[in-house]
Each structure stands twice: as C-alpha cells, then as structure tokens.
Amino acid sequence: MSVARFVAANGREAMRQVREAMGPDAVVLSNRTVEGGVEIVAMRDTDLGAVSATAQAYVPPAPVVEPAAIGDLRGELQSMRAMIERQLAGIGTAGAPVAVSDPLRESLFEWMVGAGFSGQLARTLLARLPVGYDRPAAMTWIRSELASKVPVLGNEDTLFAQGGVLALIGPTGVGKTTTTAKLAARFVLRHGADKLALLTTDSFRIGAHEQLRIYGDILGVPVHAVKDAADLRFALAAMKDKHLVIVDTVGMSQRDRNLSEQIAMLAGVQAPVQRVLLLNGASHGDTLNEVVHAYRDDAAPEGGGIDGCIISKLDEATHLGSVLDVVIRHRLPVFYASTGQRVPEHLELARGAALVERAFLTPRRGSVFADADVARRQLSDADESPARQNGADEALRSLTESADAVSQCVSELSSAQYGFDLARTLWQQRGAGASALRPMAQQVREAVCRDVNRACEQYVLALAATLHVPVAGRRAPQPMLHTLWLGDRTGMPLAATVTPTGRAGQAMGDADAEAATLRATVGAARKVVHLVDALPAAATLARWQQAGERWVAGARKTARVVCAGAAWKLDALADTLTFHAVGELPVNGRDAVQWLATAEVRVPEGPVRGRGAPEGGIDACLVIARLVDCASGELLESRYLLCDPALAGEAGQVARWALWSDAAETRFRTLRHAVDHFAQDAEAGNAAGASLAALQLGLTALRLEHAPTATAPAFLARLAGRPAARNAAGAPVPGTVLNEGMGRLLALLDVLENYPGRTGAPASPAQAGPVRTEAALPQLAPLGALQ
Predict the structure, then answer these.
(1) Predicted pLDDT of residue 400
(2) Taking Cα atoms as reference points, which of 627, 623, 609, 604 lies closest to residue 553?
(3) Predicted pLDDT at 26
(4) What is the chain's Cα-based Rg?
C-alpha cells in the first residue's frame, strides 16, 4: 500500500504533484494548511480495494428516543446551516456581531435578538459563555444568567407591609386602572377591605373614575377622585386610618411637559409614597427605555425616582425580551406581571425565571421590522442568483427548522401536566398483546394518582355521557359510557374511561375491569362530585350518597322546589334572595360581575300544584348565579343549580364547576375522535391495549386544548394539514385537529429516531403504528415556511 504526503505553496500545485505521482484517479485522504503551504495526503486508487477488504464493518449506535437527542440533532443541523449561510450570503464581514468562526455564538445571538433582547446585552452575555457548551447547555446557561439579572419582588407582604401610599404611574393606555383594581383585590384578600382606600387623579378620561368606582363597590373599598396636589393632601389626611392608599394616576406620555407636575404632586405628600411604574410589555425597547428615563430622571431630578415596576400586557407582547432588557439595564425591580384583563386572576407575582422562559417561548411569525444586519441579509437573499438557491440549501433549511419545531413541540408536551410521555409509552406498547394490558393499566393508575394529587384540592369532578358507537359485526350501534374526570382547581382533564352499558356491560372483560379499578382509584384519591345536566333519579342519588360522592345538577328556572314550607318556582324564589358579588368573568367579550345567592330547598318527587308543600322529596342546596355587565349593569345570564347539601359552603366553587361542564359535549367529541382515530386499525387481540393508548392520547389533546402551550397546538395543526393561520384570529385549535396532528407527530418521531445512519435498521411494523409514516414525511417541507 502506498500512501504519500505532498506539500506545496498552494493547493493547485499540491494537486499537480499528486496527479503526476499517483495518476488522475488518486484518492485524497486529507487536505490541510501547514507552515509553508498546503499538505495533501493521498493514495493510489488501486490500493483502495485492499483497505476496504480489511476494514471493520461499522456498527451503528443504539437508537436514541428522548427529546434531548432530537435537540442534539437540531443543534448540529443549525450549526451546519449557519456555516453554509455564512459562506453563501457573505455574513463573515468585519461588522459581524460575534466571532464568525463560532457558528454556535452566531445562532445564539440571533436567538436572543429574535426574542427582543438588545444586541449589546446579547454580545455581553455571549462573551462570558463558558467554553465547551453545546447548544442546549448554552441556552440553559443564558436563561439562568438572564433570570439572575432580573430583579424581582421577593415577597408580596413586603410591598403591602410598608403601608402609606402606593402610586401607579406610567404612560397612557398601559393599564394602570385595571392594575389598581387587581392590586386592591390582592390586598383585600390578605388584609381586608377596611384597611384600604383607592384614589384616582385621572380627570381627563371620560368614565375613568366611574370604572374604578365599580371595582371599589365590588370589593367594598371607598374610591375618591382628586384633581390637584391640595385635593390629594386633603384626601390622604382624611384617610389616615387606612393602612394603604392606592393612587391611580393620570396617564401621561413620557414627552408630556406636564409630567414633572404630576411627579411633584406625589412628592408633596407627607405619607411614604411607593412609586410603581407600569411598563407595556408589548412596546418597543427604545420606547420603554425613554419611559424609564422620563419618569425616573427627567421628571424627578431631585431623586423622587421609581421604587419598582409592573410589566403589563404580557398577553399582547411579541418580543418580551425588550422590556426585560430595560429592567436589567436600569436595575428596576419587577413587582408583578399582568397577563390579561381579568381581575384579579391576571396578575402574577414576578419571577425572573418564568419571565425569561416566556420571552423565549412567545410565538413569533417573523417580523418585517428587522434590524440593519437582518435587513441586509434579507436583501442579499432576495438578490442572489437562482444558481445559489439550490435544492440542497432549501432541503437543509427545511430539515433544520422542522427538527427545531419537532423538538420544541415534544419539549412542551413532555411537561407532566399533559401526560404525553405516558401516552407515547402506551402507544409503543399497544401491540404487545393481552398480556401487556395489566402493566399498561397500572402505569395509567399511577399517573392518575399523581395528577389528582397535583390538580385537586378536595374533590375530583366527574362528567359522563352515553354515546352510541358503531361496532364491527353488530347491526346497531352499541351504547358506550364515556366518563371524564376533571381537577377542582382549574378544570384540567385528569382521566378518562369508555365502558359498555346495558346488557353489553354485564359481561365484564379485562378492559372493563381495569376501567372499574381506575374509577375506584380516582374515588380513593379525592371525593367525587358528579356534574350532570338535570337532577338524576333518587336511586342514583342514593347510590352516590352511599359511596360518599357528591353531585351538582343544572335546573330550569321554571322548576318547582319547596323552601321554608312553601312551593316556589326557581325564578320567583330568586327574587327573594340576597346576592353577593364574588368576582369577575368574561362573557362573550364583555366583562361581567358574578353574583351568587343560595338557599336550602327540597325537590319534590312528584308534580307540585299551587303553593302547598308536598311531603317527601330530595334535600338540596340551591345556587343561583347571575352575571351582570360591569359597565352597563345589564343582566347577561342567570344559572340555576341544585347540589348536594354537603356542598352548601362551596357555592362559589359549584358555580365555577358548572361553567366548566358547559364544554362537556366538545370534550367528549374530542375523546370519541381519539378512540376512533388511534384504535381504528388495531387487531382483535390488541384492541384493549390500543384503546387504552388512544384514550391517553385523547386525554393529552384535551389537556392541551384546556391549557395551550406557546407553539405545540399550531405545530400539530400544521402536521395535520390544517394550519392555524386558516382559523379565525385567536381561535383555539380544535381537539380533533390536535388528535390528527399528534398521530402525525408519533409517526414523525419514529422516522427521526429510526432514519438510516442513526439506527441502521428500519422501524418494525409494531412501532410504525396505524398512522402511516409516509403521511408525515410530506409535511416536513413546508414547515420552515410556516414558522
């Protein structure tokens, strides 16, 4: 075997020497730059056969199936893409933001700037990035560093304990009045309404004082309007017995000349004043920077300053990194983060890690308002010749962005609350036969116990519906009882079963026995509350009572009950009761206050005539919920509920649970679709395992529909061939579409984990699943364009 080393002043001269010594078919083994020129190591092509004959066969590594492996693949592809794009688009210039020899830092720089952080902060942070980190480790390090630099309020009590005056300041439209109501509600819950008062200096906006007064009436807190410094001092003197006074100031632009007068008005107050600046999370970074300078320095030259800030409109922000960059730069403590209009739910105590994570998870569809570097690159891409836009570059770009989207989707679904990991495990085990059913059911029961303990306070809510399902070999559809359990805190779906009813359910098989065991497991973990549309039969109530279970039933306003010895229609009885405001709810886009009234009643077993009180019947607690428009006082909706007397002290919860039961029909449709979609091709011997896996996948879709993540629903919709862009703006992705997308995702994960060169062996038929792998592959190409 002849292997020779050739050194010359340049590559062309070295190749000439190779051709002269070994012929035109010589094989080049290496090519590198050395001192004095270029070194090429080559061998004759005739010797290559001898080397191949003695070489060891390559054994591929074992398949890696965890999301971390997909992340590694994504990082490698992104690094390759960065290097290729730099070569083609001429990125490697003197003005590059980070070292052009480090594609990892380049991609991280774009990642941070894309989230809204300034180039200055990104360069400073990346200069301190430890050597040897891969992309996932580097991203984790960056998140941790940013979170440590966001100053936050450690304890809410420290804000309220000081007392005195808490003044909310900021530009127009930033949400000061709504935030005032949210803070007031949080204070009342902790310290009571008698220790709080509200003031407003906003005499410019029409109805500003009236809006705050409505909130004050709901909370039982006095509200006063002041117009100047003298009024403010007089009002505060009259409220000296109050522990805290929250002032809603008039909104002023940071460029308004009267801004200094407003700050001076607060400075003239004798009581200690905490000035809290509201920053619009959806504003541009330069605007926010100017706002902080104006309110802290320009308008308060004598050191009035700002004690902290509240970030508002997080639900509207597209580049949340901008506001975090500003608070880091100005070392401005963040007290709260406002995520919507609901009072007081949409106000969270600020947490640095959560804010940073939200900044990077906020979905973005691409921006036409790019910085100079990105704009130049886009112009270069638009002008490049067709020869440079070759198929290989497009394939690499598509594969990189698809892998990134898959990894992000799997990462979001892997959160414990969605149960995707368990559903996927069951999906992979579904073809193992009847012997695997018990271990699979055991995994489900263990997961249900964990979920119930995490998502439930005292109760677990049960919804049930009987659906007629076509069955192979049967002429008539078979009635099947679908049961869904929800957590009593947020209504999150926790478990589901499907069992036959009637005569078909008398001969209980293994699957039905496991479903009965699951129901017993749920009942042992928490007390069950059945949510039904109408009052069930007395025998059913007796059975529930014997099992220690509770119930909540809907009722019509014309239904008759016995109260205080007299028979009443529910709507007539409602007019005699006292209602109490318990909070706000959105109703068809309108803010409404919910008012509740309760009464002990008895539901007669037979028809009631006149006002006489018949004997016998079912004792119940009547809960009447009225929703009243906050602005106009119009009655929007009345709801009549009958519940177990043991739930009389839980009227507010009962009203919330009834609202959650409104979506029961849609949820059962999603669950039924999952069973049909995932278990349709299962063999007869594996039907029980396939149905169990299908139920868990349907449950994951229900949980994702109930609490959508940042990007997973839209990505699953694209996989299903139904891009979210086709839906109405802001409309959630339907559960049936999530089911279809999840089927494609399972097939896509099989492809990514078993592609040649990664495992060396194709996926087995048992792993491929009923959703054809070929159906997922065409979806890869357009994903990059839809990011």
Answers:
(1) 53
(2) 623
(3) 82
(4) 33
Are 215 and 343 in contact by the 8 Å Cβ rule? The answer is: yes
Residues 308-351 have pLDDT tens digits of 899 988 888 878 888 899 989 888 899 988 887 887 778 888 88
Any residues with CB less than 8 A from the CB of 543 and at least 6 apart, and which? none
How far lies 766's CA from each of 297, 686, 742, in Å?
Answer: 68, 11, 18
Residues paired with residue 561 on neighbouring β-strands, in sequence order: 568
Which three-class secondary structure string do you get for 150-173?
CCECCCHHHHHHCCEEEEEECCCC
Q: How far apart are CA 587 and CA 635, in angstroms?
A: 11
User: What is the SS3 assignment for 30?
Assistant: strand
- β-partners of residue 643 are 552, 621
Q: State how far the Cα of 641 lies from the Cα of 666, in Å rounded to an integer.
A: 21
Query: Where in the chain are the domains?
Result: 3-54, 156-361
Q: What is the pTM of this model?
A: 0.51
Quickly tell me which residue has 């529910």 as its tokens: 570
Rounded-to-integer distance, Cα 732 and Cα 504, Å? 37
Q: Quick one: tokens of 539?
A: 């025998």
Which runs of E-coded beta strand occur in 407-492? 459-469, 478-487
**What type of residue sits at position 748?**
L
Buried b / exposed e along 268-281 (16+ C-beta atoms within 10 A) = ebeeebbbbbbbbb
Classify the C-alpha dihedral 774-780-781-786 as positive or negative: positive
Q: Give long-range contacts, CB 8 A cutoff, 24+ apart: 127-133.
A: 129/105, 133/104
DSSP letter string over 662-696? TTHHHHHHHHHHHHHHHHTT--GGGHHHHHHHHHH
* Residue 628 to residues 177, 485, 587, 591, 622, Cα–Cα distance (Å): 20, 30, 9, 8, 19
HSE at residue 280, side-chain half, CA atoms within 13 A, is 19
Q: Which two three-digit tokens encode residue 543?
A: 């059975």
Q: Which two tokens stand for residue 272?
A: 């200690």
Helix (H) or strand (E) holding 105: helix 103-114
Given the candidates 1.10.3720.10, 3.10.520.10, 3.55.50.30, 3.40.50.300, the CATH classification of the domain at 156-361 is 3.40.50.300
Residue 105's identity, in one-letter code, is R
Q: Which residue has the tokens 């190409």?
A: 781
Q: How far apart are CA 691 and CA 676, in angstroms?
A: 9
Tokens of 778: 């065409």
Euclidean distance between CA atoms 326 and 321, whole angstroms:
9
Q: What integer pLDDT is reported at residue 507 of this predicted model? A: 47
CA distance 507 to 499: 11
Residue 36 is classified by DSSP as: T
Low-confidence stretches of the chain (pLDDT < 50) are: 63-65, 86-97, 99-101, 301, 303, 372, 375-376, 378-396, 505, 507, 725-729, 755-787
Phi and psi at residue 14, in whole multiples of 5°?
-65, -40
Q: Are 693 and 496 in contact (CB under 8 A)?
A: no
The sign of the CA dihedral 445, 447, 450, 452 is: negative
d(CA 701, CA 735) in angstroms, rounded, equals: 6
Enumerate long-range contacts of 180-183, CB under 8 Å, 24 or more apart.
180/212, 180/215, 180/246, 180/248, 181/212, 181/215, 181/219, 181/343, 181/344, 182/336, 182/338, 182/343, 182/344, 182/346, 182/347, 183/246, 183/336, 183/347
User: What does 716-757 look like in DSSP terms, one character per residue?
Assistant: HHHHTT--GGGSPTTPPPPHHHHHHHHHHHHHHHHHHHH-TT
Per the structure block, which two tokens stand in for 554? Answer: 């809907």
Element (H, E) at 589: none
Residue 38 in 3-state DSSP? strand
- Pairwise CA distance, residues 509 & 689, whole Å: 13
Hey, what amino acid is at 406? V
| Strands of the 27-34 sheet, one edge to the other | 3-8, 37-43, 27-34
Cα(1)–Cα(43) distance, integer angstroms? 8
